[in-house]
Amino acid sequence: GAVVSQHPSRVICKSGTSVKIECRSLDFQATTMFWYRQFPKQSLMLMATSNEGSKATYEQGVEKDKFLINHASLTLSTLTVTSAHPEDSSFYICSAKSPVGFGYEQYFGPGTRLTVT
Amino acid sequence: KQEVTQIPAALSVPEGENLVLNCSFTDSAIYNLQWFRQDPGKGLTSLLLIQSSQREQTSGRLNASLDKSSGRSTLYIAASQPGDSATYLCALPVTAAGNKLTFGGGTRVLVKP
Questions:
Q1: How many cross-chain Cβ pairs, A to B, lie less than 8 Å apart?
Q2: What is the C-alpha to C-alpha distance for residues A113 and B3, in angstroms, rounded to an integer?
Q3: How many Cβ atoms sit within 10 Å of the Cβ of residue B31?
Q4: Mutation test of the interface with chain A: which of B38, B88, B99, B108, choosing the one with the most A Cβ atoms within 10 A?
Q5: pLDDT tier at A13 (50, 70, 90 boundaries)?
């Protein structure tokens, strides 16, 4: 089946620093990947759509200068949280749309827990 | 704007009992519906995807039904096990290309041994 990985799984950083999170599709090429944010006991909130070879599309209210997205290849998208602050602490999950199989099924990574101190 | 609701928010059942999880949506013009499982602190695992032309999908002990006219999907898990304890989420794509997913709030399930 389609597998999506994320790295790191957990990161702690100091306020003001930047953190990069990687999302990889391991066994398929994904022209489109998605970045979500999840607060404790809440559902997922789509932050942006990452398109290979073009600029990401951000959802309303998401600061594009703070959350930099780069879809460098058909198997890799990165999310960089710039000048992180404690309120950026959250669980970040990426997903990739599989071009094979059945009906645009999305496959999700295991998530990255970001803690900003 | 599509709104997705999952009720109840939490459910506790004894082992062996069948689970019935509900997902309601406001706009019946859907393309497909996907059910996910999320374990605490983990990402999402895709369970089943039902196309809009289908009425149900089955995988092992899982069966998902879809009734577009009433705006409902139901996930049935037969003979529940403690390992089924997790949060179950349903999601619908906003467009035919299946890009943006709108998620329900999830149902947190606890299967007691």
A1: 60
A2: 27
A3: 16
A4: B99
A5: very high
